[in-house]
Amino acid sequence: MKQITIALLACLVVAGCGHHTLSGTYLPKGGGVGNGIAMEKLEFGSGDQVIVTMLEQKFQVSYKIDGKHLLLSLNGQQLVFDILDDGCIDGGGNFGKFCKG
């Protein structure tokens, strides 16, 4: 029982276990266009910055993880994506689903 408790605590500390960070490039699955808004890719590096390519322009924005939600701060607006169990992120009808490319 003690080993299980230690393993669970260790899992909570490790970044990947609780979706504390994202890394790599996420590309649209199924077009990524909803309601006329086209995000072409999301590039996560180190820290809390992501480069969003949208309408052939690049924006560097900050993000944070809140449970199973990715919160992007873009031009004074907060965009909310769901972090899915398959490792993809989903922006719903406005932005669509993005998976690591």
Rg from alpha-carbon coordinates: 15 Å
- According to CATH, the fold-level topology is Lipocalin
Classified by CATH, the class is Mainly Beta
Distance between the termini: 39 Å
Q: Which residues form runs of ≥5 with pLDDT under 50?
A: 1-19
Strands ordered across the widest β-sheet? 1-3-4-5-6-7-8-9
Question: Would you count the extended β strands for me?
Answer: 9
Overall CATH architecture: Beta Barrel
Secondary-structure-derived class: alpha+beta
Main sheet summary? 8 strands, antiparallel, barrel
Structure in words:
- The protein has one domain (20-100): Uncharacterised protein family Atu4866 (Lipocalin), CATH 2.40.128.290.
- The protein has helices at 2-13, 92-95; strands spanning 24-29, 33-34, 37-44, 49-54, 57-66, 69-74, 77-83, 89-90, 97-100.
- The chain contains two helices and nine strands.
- The protein has 101 residues and is α+β, with helices and mostly antiparallel strands.
- Helix content is 16%, strand content 50%.
- Mean pLDDT is 78; it is low at 1-19.
- Strands 1-3-4-5-6-7-8-9 form an eight-stranded antiparallel barrel.
- It is globular.
At a glance:
By secondary structure, this protein is α+β, with helices and mostly antiparallel strands. It has a single domain (20-100), classed as Lipocalin. It has two helices and nine strands.
Which features would summarize this protein structure in a list?
single chain; 101 residues; alpha+beta; Lipocalin; eight-stranded antiparallel β-barrel; globular; disordered N terminus
